[in-house]
Structure formats: structure tokens, C-alpha cells
TrEMBL record:
Boundaries of every Response regulatory domain copy: 26-150
Source species, domain of life: Bacteria
Segments forming a coiled coil: 309-336
UniProt keywords, alphabetically: Coiled coil, Kinase, Phosphoprotein, Transferase, Two-component regulatory system
InterPro entries: CheY-like_superfamily, DUF3369, HATPase_C_sf, HATPase_dom, His_kinase_dom, HisK_dim/P_dom, HisK_dim/P_sf, Sensor_HK_Regulatory
Chain ranges of the Histidine kinase domain: 357-578
Source species of the chain: Prosthecodimorpha staleyi
Class of enzymatic activity (EC top level): transferase
Enzyme Commission numbers on file: 2.7.13.3
This protein's name: histidine kinase
Keyword Phosphoprotein in annotation: yes
Post-translational modification 4-aspartylphosphate, affected residues: D81
Reaction(s) catalysed by this chain's protein: ATP + protein L-histidine = ADP + protein N-phospho-L-histidine
Amino acid sequence: MSGDDLLVFLDDAEEAPATAPTKIWKIAVIDDEPAVHDGTRFALYDYSLNGQGIEILTANSAEEGRRLIDRHPDLAVILLDVVMETDSAGLDLVEYIRNVARNDMVRIILRTGQPGQAPERRVIVDYDINDYKAKTELTADKLFTALTAALRSYQQLQRMEETRRGLEIIIDAAAKLFDLKSMQRLAEGVLTQIGSLLKVECAGILVLREAGGAAETFTVLAGSGVYAGLTGAVTPPLNGDVSRLVHEAFALRRHQFLDQQSVLYLRTASGREVVVLLEAQKTLSDTDRALVEVFCGKLSIAFDNVILYEQLAEANARLEQRVEERTRELTAANERLALQREILKRSNAFKSDILGMVAHDLKNPISVILGRSEIIGELIDRDPVPVEMIRAQIGRIVEPAQAMTRMIEQLLKDAMNDHLDVRLRPEAVDLGGLVADVIEDHRPGAARKQQSLAIEIVEPMVVEADPDRLREAIENIISNAIKYSPIGGPIVARIGRADRMAALSVADRGPGLSPEDIGRLFGRFQRLSAKPSAGESSTGLGLSIAKHIVALHGGRLEAASAGPGQGTTFTIKLPVRAEDGSDSE
């Protein structure tokens, strides 16, 4: 830039004020000419607008300007040179500010020493700037005027933004009235909105006194500035003037407009009272007061709406609680009915199984009894009556009748054992001793089939079990082996340890099990492919009951067979009693 292009300052500098302004505007000078920076600082060294001074930040290139803008998004005005690193560096920076940094608030004044490089009309139309000046026309007075106009524009945008933020807070609060914090959010919006309406930054509190509440009791719904920490406090300690003004407002029930304090009072239709106290370095004009009074008149409805919604939310919560309680009661009743239905369903199925089994297993002995009875009838008709033959036939009737009696007794016993509500009375049980007792009880039955019963105790085992119930399970296994083993076949019971558990295995050399038998071995009323070797009857419940009893003791009942004709081994595995010092699973 030539000497003719330098800034020309025609005004004499005034003395700096005795006290610097407490607030400042941030002004950026972005120019590659050091003289421009010095001249701008000199011309604006004592600048003040509405008691607010300026801070001048500088950058010597467009690149430095980008970094400066990123560090200071609150810049008020930028004095920007057009031609720096390139002929369009300043214009490119304008695009960066508006489109990349997304800063629409800052006011931009373009300054150029080469107007021909960027014609004024095209620049004003094509770029989002607020003023365009040649450096030669920016005297101190014109610079002051241009800066003041830009700052006023920035100030107006700030006020619009504050108003927008206040409205957003109120709208957001209205959309969340069912939230417990909606009253507080509305109060925060009131403070922000009043500050925007008055065009001042102010500290303040908004307090609420419930209808019929004590005169000294109130809640701070919101606070700003030095009072921000009081939000949510109930009857907080306030300094003397603030406390006096709040209590006077509740007593006088009207607004008070003082030099630097404004106290606003409103009463809702529900009887609640709200006091807003604002502290601002401004005396309100008549227009300001009228605007505030209109605004407060609308607030009464807003607060009542929030209160009504909160009451509705509480009523809904109580209703939902009652519905939930009733739903739980109905659910519990339905569960009880479903359980009873399932019990009845199982009982009915059990009854059907019993009837089917009885019809099948009692048919043969009844047929024998009927046949023998017919023979006796024929013998009675003879003359003379063959008494010995009749006596022999009666003896033949007694045997199937006794078999039927035993079968019925076994069915009743099995039905009782198969009941789901089996209660155990556990105690320390010597497994070997219990098995030996069961074997001794069954030796006569095995002897009739010329079978041998042996017991091998590989390792003594003590288990925690109900001796009566465990005996039933073992008897079912032993009797099952006797029933299906061939005449003269050996049956061996071994007691030891398997899988870190006490184990009782009963092995026979009977017909064994087919793959189909393995799959349905422990089901109720199951008939296997093998038949008892001496025509004994079977209810199909014994193994099912044994498995159920073993499971109640925390154990397992397993069966293994190499296949048909290879015999079967049943193994009962039970946890070892901890007191005996052995490991338990």
C-alpha cells in the first residue's frame, strides 16, 4: 500500500478515561499492513459505547485470521482487508467465517486499499458483509461511525438471540410439563426472557409460595447470575435487601420498579404466588414496565398450566399404580388357576393311565378266575359231586386272585410314591448296609427263580438321604433285576465311587435293552420290549419312581446295556456326605 493509502486521522486524541469500562467488545483487525494495525489502535484507544469498551485483536494474514476467529467465536466486529496473501484472501475469509465457522453474528467491515480489485457493488451483493470501505476514506470519525453502527447491529443480534433462547426454554418447558422439573425449566425461561425483553443482562431469582403456606416459607425455582446457586432451595438465606424486597412483594402483592432493581409479583388462579426479583444496571422506562406487566399477566396462566399438568401426572401415576396392583392380582389369580388346571390335567391323565393299565393287566387273572368258576359250576352238576376236583379248582382260583391283590396294592403304593410333593427326612445312611438289608429281603424271591444275589463293597460310602425313600428306590432296582433276569441268572450289586459320587450299580444277565427301550426307560407306565422271565406282572412305574427319588436326593439314575441279550446295569449315583471327609461333587 502506498503512502497515499494510509489511514488519515483528523480528530485529536482525547485523554483516556480515569476508569476503564468493566465490559468490552472484541474487535478483530485482520490486515497485512502493520501501519493499519497501529493506526486503528490509535484511533480507537478510548472508544466506548454505552459504557462498554473494546479489545482489539490482530492478525496479519487470512490464515492467522482463521485461527483468531476459531479461538474467539464471540468477536463482535471484524475489520478485514481484502488483499493479503492473495488478491481475494479477505473475501475467502468471509466465506470461511459464514459457511465454515458458522458465525452469523459477527459484523464484517471490509477495508481495501485497492478498490478496483474488488468492486464495491459485486462484493456487497455476493458476500455476507455489513460494510465496505476504502482505506483512504476511513478517517477517525468515519471509523468511529462505522464501528458504532456495526456494534449496534451486533448488539441487536445479541438481543434477538437472547430472546430466541428465552422462547426456546419456555417452549421446551411447555413440551415437558409432565416432567417433575418442568416448573423449574419454566422459571429459568422466565428469567432469561425478561432479561431479553429489558435488553439487559441481569441477576435474579424466581420464588414460589404455595397456596396457604407459611408467610416465611417459599422455594427458589430458578436463579441467575450471583443467585444461580440458590435454585431449588427452600427459604434460603438471602442478603438483607433481597430478603426485604421478596417479603414486601408477598405483602404488597404488586410490582415494584426501583433504580436498579425490579420486583415482579403475580398470583395464579390456584392461589400460588410468584415473585421475580431482578438486579440490572438500568432503570426501566415506561415502555419497559408496560412490557413486563403484560408478560407477567401471561405468566399466571403458564404457571397454572404447569401445576395442573403436574397434578394430572400425579393422578395418572396413582391410577397406573392401582392398575399395576390390580394387574398383579389378576396375574397371580390366573397363575393359580393355570396351576390348578395343570394339576387336574395331570390327575386326569394319571387316572386314564391307571384305568388302561388295570384293564390290561387284570384281564388275564380275571379270565382265569372266570374259567375256573365255570368248571366248578359244571362239577357241581355231577352226581356224585367230585369234591376233590372242586377243591383243586378253588385252589387254582386263589392264586390269580392273590396276584390281583398284590398288583392293586403295588399300584396304590406306586401312585403314592409318584406324587409330586415328596418330602425327604435326610440323615447319614450307610449305603452298603442299606443295600445289604434290601438284598436279604429279596433273597426268597430270587431263590424261587434259582437266582443268586451278591453284594460287593469296593469302598464304604455314607450318604445324606432319607433311608425310607432311598430304600424304595433301591428295592425297585433290585426287584426289577430279579423280575427280568433269567432262571438261575446271577445279580451283583457293587458299592463304590464314580464321578466323585457314591455309586450303587446293580448288574444282571437278563434280556438287556434295545435302543428304543433306552429312550423311554424312565417314563411312567412304560412297557419295554423284554418281558418278565417268570410271567410276573409290571405296572411300568417302578423305574420312574426310582429316578424321581434319586433326583430328589441330588443324584442320578443311569442305565447301560450292550444290547438285547447282553444284560443291563442300573447305577444310582448320590453325593457323598461331607462329614465323612470324602470329596463331594
